[in-house]
Structure formats: C-alpha cells, structure tokens
C-alpha cells in the first residue's frame, strides 16, 4: 500500500514537473531558469527525509545517455564509498557501483530540441566525490534498480576532508548548482540528522 502511494505521488510529481517544463520551454526558449522547475531543499533534515538512499560516491566524468519513454537521463557508474542510509529494497555494498540516473530533460520528438528539466550547465557532472540523496527503487520496465537524485537542483560535491583516520569525519560537501537554499552539508551534521530519524 505504501509503495503504491509513493508511486502515485511520484507519477503526479513527474507529470506536474514535465508539464511545467514543457510549458516553460514553449513560453521562454532560454534554459537559464530551469532550476525553478524542480524542488529545492532548505535544510539537511528536509533533504534526508525525501531520500531513501544516501551515499558518498565517486562520480566519473564518463556517462551514457539513456531515454526511458520521453525522459532523458545521463547515467553514471558511481562507486559507493560510504553508505549512510539505505531504506530501499536493494542491497548496496560499499566499494561496489550503482547506476546513477541524472534527469536532464525531455525528448519532444520530431527533431525538436531537448526540453531541459535541469539547467544545461549541470547536465554533465564533474568527476569527483559527491554526497548523493537518492530515490532508489526497482524499475519493472528496465528490470533493474535505478537511483535518481531526489532533486536535480542541488548537487553536493566534497570540497574538504579533515580527519581521514579519525572516527568523526569532517568532510564538507558544497552545493555546486545555482540554488542557494542549502549551500553546504557537513558530514558530521548529516550523521546526526540520520541518527535522529531512526
């Protein structure tokens, strides 16, 4: 019952987002404001609540583009360095890789330009270590688990790490997009939030 409710809410959110993206694309051909089409989070608590998988992972610069229906994704093989939380049904192991599906836009067909859901500046991720807040679930159409960031507007890339050998990491992850509601997340704060929600 809960899975059906989540699926229904997700489908409605995608439909509203897609409709907004298409409408926006038709009214304003510039893609500089596509950040406004998707949700942004203003606190660590809020972004943690909306993710069922949270990892620190190494994102390569290489990706493949995949189209599922009309939705276009850039797919990255992300090595899981640290698994902070996994509320999904998937078995995720540190050191192994998962496929990250980064939503970029909609294929309108008929040789039309891609309708961006994400600002074109953020279609391709820079190689590096990221803190990823994901919606992970089994996709019946693709016949595998897919992991999609819970918002395309906020990407947290590791900027510093002190205490590589200490028990308490001091890693800092900075939001590299234009959204400024949550400029950075400290690993110690993240762990505290996750622990408080158990």
Description:
With 198 residues, this protein is of the alpha+beta class. The chain is built from 3 helices and 10 strands, in the order ααββββββββββα. It has helices spanning 2-27, 44-49, 187-196; strands at residues 53-59, 64-68, 71-86, 97-106, 115-116, 128-139, 144-149, 156-160, 172-175, 184-186. Strands 1, 2, 3, 4, 5, 6, 7, 8, 9 and 10 form a 10-stranded antiparallel sheet that branches.
Topology:
Blueprint (H helix, E strand, L loop, with lengths): L1 H26 L16 H6 L3 E7 L4 E5 L2 E16 L10 E10 L8 E2 L11 E12 L4 E6 L6 E5 L11 E4 L8 E3 H10 L2
Antiparallel strand pairs: 1-3, 1-6, 2-3, 3-4, 4-5, 6-7, 6-8, 8-9, 9-10
Q: What is the overall silhouette?
A: globular
Instruction: Write down the overall mean pLDDT.
Output: 82
Low-confidence stretches: 21-36
Q: Structural class, from secondary structure content?
A: alpha+beta
Strand content: 35-45%
Q: Biggest β-sheet, characterized?
A: 10 strands, antiparallel
Distance between the termini: 22 Å
Strand tally is 10
Using the CA coordinates, give the radius of gyration: 17 Å
Please work out how many helical segments DSSP would assign: 3
The H/E string reads HHEEEEEEEEEEH
């Amino acid at each position: 019952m809960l899975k059906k409710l989540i699926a229904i809410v997700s489908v409605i959110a995608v439909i509203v987002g897609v409709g907004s993206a298409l409408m926006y694309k038709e009214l304003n051909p510039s893609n500089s404001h596509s950040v406004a089409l998707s949700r942004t989070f203003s606190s660590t608590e809020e972004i943690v609540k909306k993710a069922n998988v949270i990892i620190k992972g190494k994102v390569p610069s290489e990706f493949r583009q995949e189209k599922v229906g009309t939705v276009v994704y850039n797919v990255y093989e992300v090595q899981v360095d640290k698994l902070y939380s996994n509320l999904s049904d998937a078995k995720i192991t540190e050191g192994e890789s998962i496929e990250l599906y980064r939503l970029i836009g909609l294929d309108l067909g008929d040789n039309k330009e891609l309708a961006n859901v994400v600002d074109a500046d953020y279609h391709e991720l820079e190689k590096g270590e990221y803190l990823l807040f994901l919606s992970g679930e089994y996709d019946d159409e693709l016949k595998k688990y897919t992991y999609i960031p819970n918002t395309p507007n906020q990407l947290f890339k590791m900027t510093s790490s002190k205490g590589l050998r200490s028990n308490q990491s001091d890693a800092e992850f900075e939001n590299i997009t234009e959204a400024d509601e949550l400029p950075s997340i400290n690993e110690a704060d993240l762990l505290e939030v996750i622990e408080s929600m158990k």
